[in-house]
Amino acid sequence: MSSKSALQLYILASTLVLGSTAVTSSATAATTPGRTEFEILMNGKPVGKHIVTVSKSADITNVRVAIDMAGKIGPISFSYRHRCEEAWRGNQLTSLNCSDQENRSNKSVAANLRGANIVVDGTGFKGNAPAAILPSSWWRVSTINQSRLLDSRDGKLSRVNVNRVGEEVLQIGGANVRANHYRVRGAVNTDLWYDGTGRWVRTAFKIAGQSFDYRKVTSVASSPSE
Predict the structure, then answer these.
(1) In the predicted model, what is the mean pLDDT of the chain?
(2) How far apart are CA 137 and CA 139, in angstroms?
């Protein structure tokens, strides 16, 4: 496997990112603060963590995303670090600031709401995006209703197609959790699970022949939702 393939392991992290759904979010829905943490497994072995913390201050919702991952595929070592801050007013993204490091490759994006557009300044794209676009940070269940996403790594506008696979029962913290399973294909390829209230509970994908799975280590009840 090439070093380029290893560096692409975390194209899905801000996971870095949907058809019909049994869970929807209205334009006036209130965001529920909380914290969710996933242990990232590669072929069943722990290689990192993905943490999302959502808090509210007056009418602004603040989101912090932290992803750290390191491991080896054969003789090739890889490391990944992602930090991102989002600000929302209701269900409207007002700003985004992210930095991303894959081994020695650095990426970043800053985006701000200006009138009817999100003005994007990223290493992968500079220009205007529709104000309604969502970032590829996965924690919002309305991501599954999108055909384009703002890549939280570098600002690219990624086209995706999402289909609902069905309802499944997941084991989380020793409890059975009913979750809706969605398959994302296009510029990003991943599978996502949200429970009946729209809380993100699992992610799984394959890159360079390796299987990655997110195992939730915090309670579902403490997780944020939009």
Answers:
(1) 88
(2) 6
